[in-house]
Amino acid sequence: MLPGALHEVLTPITFTPATPAPARTTATTPTPAAPAPATPLRTPTGPQLLPSAPLLRGVAELAAGIGARQAFEFLLGRHLDANPRQYTLTPAELAGLMADLAGPARTALDPACGTGALLRAVDPRPGQRLYAQDSAPELAALSALRLALHNRATVRAAAGDTLRADAHPGLRADVVLCHPPFNERNWGHDELAYDPRWEYGFPARTESELAWVQHALARLKDGGTAVLLMPPAAASRRSGRRIRADLLRRGALRAVVALPVGAAPPYNIPLHLWVLRRPDRVPATPEVLLVDTGRFAGEGRGGPDWEAVRETVTDAWRAFTRAGRLAERPGLARSVPVIELLDDDVDLAPARRLPPAVADGAEQLTRVRERLGETLRLTADLTPPPADPAPPARWPLTTVGELARGGALVMRTGGNGGHARVPVLTDHDVLAGTAPSGTLPESEEEAVLTEPGDVVVPVLGGGAVARVIDEATGGAALGRNLVLLRPDRTALDPWFLAGFLRGTANNRQASSYASTATRLDVRRLHLPRLPLDEQRRYGARFRALEEFERALRQASRLGEQLVRGMYDGLTDGTVAPG
């Protein structure tokens, strides 16, 4: 019965656009075609696995307990976690920043919607209309249902190639948000040579991103705002300089924001945000806002400092939109006259146009050096003593699952609920040993909150890691892909538990390699059965090792800060080589 019920719900808000029209041979603007009529979703091909009765019963119980929206978000998160290479996701923090830059909207469009993250970040308003399109029918259907569950806006989601077969040709939206596919050669260059959307120039075959920029502008009303996530090459490739120049001359491009490394996939590249407005009038002395947030890149796998990124970008954008210009903020932001950008390259990369940040002075570098020296001395003091040889242990063993069934510990999984005011401990935080840095969608369900003495274990990645929650981290919500173990202190020592869970052989025998990522079954991890006093003796040694590991991380961070500051000081003249 489930497929039939879904068909009844999705068909009114999801449709497949008609076959694209042949390429036009004149540059005249035709009368916009009416949107394609609603037609049933295409039936997926290939072998189908029918949901089992226990699975459907579990989904029904989940929805009854936490609500349809929370149940859908939970199931969608599990689906995306199980297929990490199949989808290019837009992180929720980035989607929120893009929606902030775009501002409020009664009509909003995402022409490459994916799972609907960008439109979901738009603030709900009475009478709001959300339009989405994606080339993958299953993603269009997911977005339609997700947006319909999230708020009471009217949702229209289409399946089809946006550039070749636009499903919303007559739309003039207040806001367009888009995370387009990057570096596509087969975007329709040969078929769309005379398309009326190319008001700022016909994009080269290698400039698919500039085709998406012009599509977004064509779907805006006068004065409407578009925010697109762009690869940094789009700001400087010579093949796109004429289009960039025309966007500047006509006042369409308003801001370029360089994001930190790790903001969105591909995570090794500092992506850009382009903020555009469909010109209703050209300023007398137009300027463009350039912002560089590269300094807020996170350490290790912790991700960027999103709070600092959002505050820096939104503050600069609001000040710029109020006054039409922005005074220099060294290393962070400035507004640049358009005439200054219209050179042979029309290079829009913020790092090339911003004044350098004030380098760490000699006094601050001296303080960093002193802290590094103290940390290195501490590291030497904490170095473990030589290991005492011992015959192989023959302990009686138990498993985490058996201890949970016997009441010696409580086992909880994370990621099912959250609240905007509660920091979230992510698997990246656990792996990197950093403070809670994540967020979860708001939910009516109670989040799993950590307490001092809990042991948190990541289940993805194949690493032997377990973290004991301290006073500073206690109270954070448990994120996805984490399992929390709360031991009964009268039966289990937390440091003993965490130490034995980190054993390489222990993790190897409890891991599954059936999917693209290694997954740890925490219930199968082994522990020796030892008296509590013996547990505490092992726990003290494990705790000392953890303190040594933490000191090594701190020394690494301080060393990197000192080296970077010395290079910057020597190269900008604020530090003498002597």
TrEMBL record:
Where does the DNA methylase adenine-specific domain lie? 71-349
Q: Which InterPro entries match?
A: DNA_methylase_A-5, Restrct_endonuc_typeI_TRD_sf, SAM-dependent_MTases_sf, Type-I_RE_MTase_Subunit
Signal sequence segment: none
Q: Where is the composition biased (Low complexity)?
A: 13-31
The UniProt entry, under Pfam families, shows: N6_Mtase
**Which keywords belong to this entry?**
DNA-binding, Endonuclease, Hydrolase, Nuclease, Restriction system
Q: What superkingdom heads the lineage?
A: Bacteria
**Biological process according to GO:** DNA restriction-modification system
Spell out the residue ranges making up region: Disordered: 13-50
Which GO terms fall under molecular function for this chain's record?
DNA binding; endonuclease activity; N-methyltransferase activity
**How is this protein named in the record?**
Type II restriction endonuclease subunit M
